[in-house]
């Protein structure tokens, strides 16, 4: 199979910029390991104003990356938030300086299990330290330091990105004015951990995983990773969305074949999702990042009282959820809102009507966009933000 | 309307008469929570003209979206479910305008209002108004009036009360009535009057409460 080389070559050729971080002061991870110096790949859109006050940090989700808009150099498709980031769009690049970095543990140019460990000269593999959402945020703060940005105007993200937003606002409130966690939660639920475990077991059960050392064997655990993606993909949709998209329609055939071929359109779709994911994502990264999400529980270190994670917070919050999202349901967002109300924080909360499931934050949702742009514009007004 | 153009800007210098009465009661710079804030008309007026630090709770998604889109801090929720979360004294004023009869547990809601607000402003349609009494007496059917314009099967009001009822509830729960403002059917202020007369002749009552 030629995938290992092709994936590696492609990523080496990724368009920058790349920041070298943790040189003077290494990044101390929650697991106790110190990381540094390390590379972080990121993208910026728009211009930083003179006061360096118009930066918006976008935190990407589990399998997202730093390419918000324009052509993604790996998939050759439009960036994952091209409908949200750009001139005149909610994250208006004529007003704001938008930054998005590939998280640590990722596989799009930032340090992660498929990158070379300088000590061994080989890919980290399972030697890579286990990371947490808090570690991802700390790494992004180092990036902000390197860009000379003391305080971001807003930090925003959906799903795991929203977890980073909550962690950022809780731990580093002095470095952010407004926070927008979308389709997120302050903890990963047992159900979500269970789904992740299915995905990880699928990867690890693939003989090509080679105990995590598939790079050395010139292999890729494609089948395992594809199954992981297929299972996860179902959780990103809703019953209604699946029904609308596929129903029980058959794939290029008039009748069922009495076999295990992809008779149904939905099967064919999932298989495609699985196989195209393998082309762009590293299996070990998938293990590490899902683990980081599983470990996330913001209340845990505050005696189980989420409100304490936000005591006296000066941050202006806008929490958003989607009605048909059963992976990060509205009830989880409401827990966050209740905690913020408990400390009389400045918080807005909107549940957007949508049948698109968890993925709604990535899709065409005009209500979501108008609320988002209204919140940002209102926040910019309160802050007296100057456009560049 | 593009929210980009309008966020933070006053939408109207003129608001509904009863909202104007509330607005006039509130000092500049106060911390205000508007429970059932609708599309945020009162809040945006208060933010613009009285520089209050405003927050709102609203049940309808369209109302919340409009408000947040205009730069207000509003959560989707309702008085019964969400007031319990706020800490004591979090606001200078908590406003509950025309919403009390629609709550499931008005007594509990009132308790929260004066707990989380140093003061609470509560207004509601008076079911003791003479037109209500007269129509029920003469027609034998649920009255429809200017203050209560919906038929029994479509009204959101499940706990209607008279001004007298309300005052005795406050009394039983140790809530102080600091001010009473009689209003007409359109929510415009009426000449001050005795409470007994108000119970018969005012279509709306507005109260400033504290614990």
Walk me through what this model shows.
The complex is a heterodimer of chains A (388) and B (211). Chain A is of the alpha/beta class and 388 residues long. Chain A has ten helices and 14 strands. In chain A, 35% of the residues lie in helices and 16% in strands. Chain A is globular. With 211 residues, chain B is an alpha/beta fold. Chain B has a single domain, classed as Vaccinia Virus protein VP39 (Rossmann fold, 3-Layer(aba) Sandwich). Helices cover 35% and strands 22% of the residues of chain B. Chains A and B meet through helix 9, strand 14 and helix 10 of A and helix 4 and strand 3 of B.
Q: Based on DSSP secondary structure assignment, what is the total number of beta strands of chain B?
A: 7
Q: Can you identify the CATH superfamily of chain B?
A: Vaccinia Virus protein VP39
Rg estimate of chain A, integer Å: 21 Å
CATH level-4 homologous superfamily of the largest domain in chain A: Alpha/Beta hydrolase fold, catalytic domain
What is the class of the largest domain in chain A in the CATH system?
Answer: Alpha Beta
Mean pLDDT of chain A: 94
Present the secondary structure layout:
The complex is a heterodimer of chains A (388) and B (211).
Chain A: H1 3-12, E1 18-21, E2 27-28, E3 34-35, E4 38-45, E5 55-59, E6 85-86, E7 91-92, E8 97-101, E9 116-117, E10 122-123, H2 133-146, E11 152-158, H3 160-171, E12 176-182, H4 190-205, H5 222-236, H6 239-245, H7 265-280, H8 283-295, E13 316-322, H9 330-342, E14 346-352, H10 366-383
Parallel strand pairs in A: 5-8, 5-11, 6-7, 11-12, 12-13, 13-14
Antiparallel strand pairs in A: 1-4, 2-3, 4-8, 9-10
Helix pairs in contact in A: 2-3, 4-5, 4-8, 5-7
Chain B: H1 3-6, H2 17-25, E1 31-35, H3 41-50, E2 53-58, H4 61-69, E3 73-76, H5 79-82, E4 91-97, H6 106-116, E5 117-125, H7 130-139, H8 163-172, E6 176-183, H9 195-201, E7 204-210
Parallel strand pairs in B: 1-2, 1-4, 2-3, 4-5
Antiparallel strand pairs in B: 5-7, 6-7
